[in-house]
What we know:
Layout: H1 2-13, E1 21-26, H2 41-52, E2 58-60, E3 63-70, E4 73-80, H3 87-98, E5 105-111, E6 119-122, H4 131-140, E7 146-151, H5 161-165, H6 171-194, H7 196-203
Parallel strand pairs: 1-4, 1-5, 5-7
Antiparallel strand pairs: 2-3, 3-4, 6-7
Helix pairs in contact: 2-6, 3-4, 6-7
Amino acid sequence: MFHRLLAKFVKQKQYIDPQMKFLVVGLGNIGQEYAHTRHNLGFQALDYYAKENDLTFETRRYGDLAMRKLRGRQVFLLKPSTYMNLSGKAVRYWLEKEKIPIENLLVIVDDINLPLGAIRLRSKGSDGGHNGLKNICQILGHCNYARLRFGIGNDFSPGGQVDYVLGQWTEEQWQVVKDRLPKIAQAIDSFVLEGINRAMSKFNTK
């Protein structure tokens, strides 16, 4: 009797187990002036993923959101509209709204400490000096969430970090990025379907 009632509830309410929900966040800054900058790698990665899967972003609270069903899992793609340094507000809001467990959160960021095109997945870690990750850690109260770090290189003189990360990709750099975007998309699917440990073993590169 209980199982029949539960099945009826699931059908009527279209209930989705929170364990089957995932939030993938690409970090960046809103505005056309930032669109092609190195610091917007997170946005660029999700734009590619959405295009490849025929997904459309809609402007929602604290960001642009797209949704995908992947083998019974519900994947939310989020590009925060809070600007990089306040990304945590958007992340916390959508985690709480959709009741998504922290282990199902993946944040995609640029990283000057990695060579251009390198991909590093981690299940947790420090913010590494990245202001977006730093704010997420502050808002959530911990740094125990998965992240995909994408190397943008560090071809700048002392004191030139801000100008470099907020600068436009060169043509040569952008070609490297474009060649690697499919790997990021595959890593997202691996995280959702296989978990962070399996994704790390498959996609971490030198």
